[in-house]
Each structure stands twice: as structure tokens, then as C-alpha cells.
């Protein structure tokens, strides 16, 4: 079993991350690079949680062996407390051979650092960019990330200057690397403590309040009213952006040099807006070079970015609204069936998603 537990958990966690990504994502619509980067990020996060108990059990066993073999003289300068040699150290089933875990943690740590601070933020900025070429998108992503990380560099530079000026410290490459690791870990630990502090209070409180009759239904009504306002605002914003796209599409004809940029913007618009604009435009009308009302490429880049953001926001609110409606209908059915004499759960509206056959077999209306 030496190292077998580590190998099994590495394989298990990979398929777990793949299953969750398939459950909450769409492989057909997403780019392969996005799928790989997201899968790797989730995989590394889950690995830390699952492999940590193996590392702890192995460390306890190694310390036990060291304590058995150490003498009282050696224990004075060590953190190991000697124990009688008659006591045996039981090798755990999750034991990992020496030399594997340091390499494993280095690979996980530095890969996570690369994804967190470089690759994933760059990919997010690249996807939100309004550029019409790969070079333009890369340039925009680099500028946005340079501005974003400029604040972190200022803090890191201040600490670096302090260490360099202080005569008690001798600045070397190892110390510089340590400062960078400490800064990254401090940011991660602060975010982790903040989220854990909120979750430790909110999760038990939500379950406690959820046991109250009618509480979840009233809370869902409140969320629906709030989301309805956000949904209406997103639809209004999308209408305004589509109106600007329509004006640009009508002004820039088929033989204009910037027509390719307009076609790229139209592909990002919802299908109903594309059909509406296609019926109202005449692509066979030549453009007049003497007119000065044509937008520049920079304005089209800005419009392209606004289209991407407004469409994503509109789709997000639509999905959230659909999920909230299904939850509200279900909670209303719960309230109605509590006083039902038929002793069977009756749904007012059935879910659009196909139900699992196994769950449907055991989780019957009577149950």
C-alpha cells in the first residue's frame, strides 16, 4: 500500500473535478483552453483538501519513528520528545514514501500561483476584451492586468525598499522569494479567513431559519423582487446597446473597411437582435467617404466590449430568474401540500430538466 492511497486519490480527485465541471459547464460551447485551465484550477484546489490528511498521517508516523530512535541527548535540541523503544509505531495505510510529498507540494503550489496570478486573470481580461484581433485582445489584457497588479507591486515595492534599506537584513534572492511567497500567502489567508468567517455564521443560520415554516418562501419572494429589478435593468441596458449597434450597422456598409469589425460585433448579439437588424439593413448600398459620421475603430472596440458585458449580464439574470422561479414554485407546493389530505406531493409545475431515474424511483410523491 506504499503510495497506493496517494495514487488513488489523485485519480479520484481528477474525475471528481471533471464531473463537477461537466455538471456546471458546457463543453460544447466553451473553448478547450478555458476547459483545461478551469479543470486544472479545480483539480489543484481539491487535491489540497484530499491529500492533506495523508500528509498529516505520514508526518505523525515519521515523527513517531524519530522519537523512538532518538536519544535523550538529541532531544534537547530537537522538537521531538523521546519515547520508550518498546513502543511501536504503526505504519498507516495512507503512508507516503519519503521524498514524494515535497515534490508534490511544490508542483501544486507553484502551478496554483501561476494560475492565480498570471494565466486565469489574463484569460478573463482576454475574454472581456473588445478587440477584434488576437493581438488587440492580448494588448488589452496586458494593460488591464498591469493596472490591476500595479497596486500589489506598490505594496511589494514598499516592503522591498524597507528590507533593502534596513541594515539588519541582507537582501538575497532566497529572501526575495520568501517575501513574495509571504505576500501571496497573506493575501490568500486573509481572503480565506474572511470567507470562512462569513460561512461559519451564515450557513448554520440559513439552515436554522430554513426550518421555520414559511420563512424560505418569504425570503424567496424578497429575492425575486430584488432580482426582477436587476433583470429589468439588464434588459434595458441591452436594448440601449443593441440600438447603438443597429445605428453603427446601418451607417457602415458592406464595402467599408470597418465592416468586418461590425460583423464581429453582430455575432456577439442575441439571435433575435441579429435577425431584426438583418431585416432593416441594405448591405448593397455603398458608403459615402465624404461623410464624417463613421465611428472610429477605437469606438467600435469600446462598443464591442459593452456588447459582451451587456449580453453576459442579461443571460446571467435570465438564468438566475429561472432558477429562482423554480425554487419559489417548489416552496409554494411545499406550503400547499403541508395541509393536503392525499398524503402525496403534487407539483404545480414540473421541472424542465429530466429527473434522475434512480432518484425518481426512491423519491416518490408519497415519500
Automatic annotation (TrEMBL):
It comes from Podargus strigoides. GO terms for biological process: adrenergic receptor signaling pathway. GO terms for cellular component: membrane. Its main location: membrane. The lineage of its organism: Eukaryota, Metazoa, Chordata, Craniata, Vertebrata. The keyword Isomerase does not apply. Belongs to the LIMR family. It is found in: Membrane. Residues 224-251 form a coiled coil. Pfam families: LMBR1. The chain crosses the membrane at residues 6-21, 33-52, 103-126, 146-165, 177-201. It is a multi-pass membrane protein. Keywords: Coiled coil, Membrane, Transmembrane, Transmembrane helix. This is LMBD2 protein.
Amino acid at each position: 500500500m506504499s503510495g497506493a492511497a496517494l495514487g488513488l486519490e489523485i485519480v479520484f480527485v481528477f474525475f471528481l473535478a471533471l464531473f463537477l465541471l461537466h455538471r456546471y459547464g458546457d463543453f460544447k460551447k466553451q473553448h478547450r483552453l478555458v476547459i483545461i485551465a478551469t479543470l486544472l484550477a479545480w483539480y489543484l484546489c481539491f487535491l489540497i483538501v484530499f491529500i492533506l490528511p495523508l500528509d498529516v498521517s505520514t508526518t505523525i508516523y515519521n515523527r513517531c519513528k524519530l522519537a523512538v530512535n532518538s536519544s535523550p541527548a538529541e532531544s534537547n535540541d530537537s522538537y521531538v520528545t523521546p519515547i520508550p523503544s518498546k513502543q511501536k509505531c504503526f505504519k498507516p495505510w495512507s503512508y507516503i514514501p519519503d521524498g514524494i510529498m515535497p515534490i508534490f507540494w511544490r508542483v501544486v503550489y507553484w502551478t496554483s500561483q501561476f494560475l492565480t496570478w498570471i494565466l486565469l486573470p489574463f484569460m478573463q481580461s482576454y475574454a472581456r476584451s473588445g478587440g477584434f484581433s488576437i493581438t488587440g485582445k492580448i494588448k488589452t489584457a496586458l494593460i488591464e492586468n498591469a493596472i490591476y497588479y500595479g497596486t500589489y507591486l506598490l505594496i511589494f515595492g514598499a516592503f522591498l525598499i524597507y528590507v533593502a534599506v534596513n541594515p539588519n537584513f541582507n537582501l538575497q534572492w532566497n529572501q526575495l522569494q520568501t517575501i513574495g511567497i509571504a505576500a501571496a500567502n497573506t493575501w490568500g489567508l486573509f481572503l480565506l479567513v474572511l470567507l470562512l468567517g462569513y460561512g461559519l455564521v451564515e450557513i448554520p443560520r440559513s439552515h436554522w431559519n430554513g426550518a421555520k415554516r414559511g420563512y424560505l418562501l418569504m425570503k424567496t419572494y424578497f429575492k425575486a423582487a430584488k432580482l426582477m429589478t436587476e433583470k429589468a435593468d439588464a434588459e434595458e441596458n441591452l436594448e440601449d446597446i443593441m440600438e447603438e449597434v443597429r445605428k453603427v450597422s446601418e451607417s457602415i456598409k458592406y464595402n467599408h473597411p470597418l465592416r468586418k469589425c461590425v460583423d464581429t460585433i453582430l455575432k456577439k448579439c442575441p439571435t433575435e437582435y441579429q435577425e431584426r437588424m438583418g431585416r432593416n439593413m441594405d448591405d448593397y448600398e455603398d458608403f459615402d467617404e465624404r461623410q464624417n459620421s463613421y465611428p472610429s475603430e477605437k469606438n467600435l472596440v469600446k462598443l464591442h466590449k459593452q456588447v459582451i458585458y451587456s449580453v453576459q449580464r442579461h443571460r446571467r439574470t435570465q438564468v438566475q430568474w429561472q432558477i429562482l422561479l423554480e425554487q419559489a414554485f417548489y416552496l409554494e407546493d411545499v406550503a400547499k401540500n403541508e395541509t393536503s389530505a392525499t398524503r402525496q406531493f403534487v407539483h404545480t409545475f414540473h421541472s424542465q430538466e429530466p429527473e434522475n431515474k434512480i432518484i425518481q424511483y426512491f423519491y416518490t410523491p408519497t415519500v
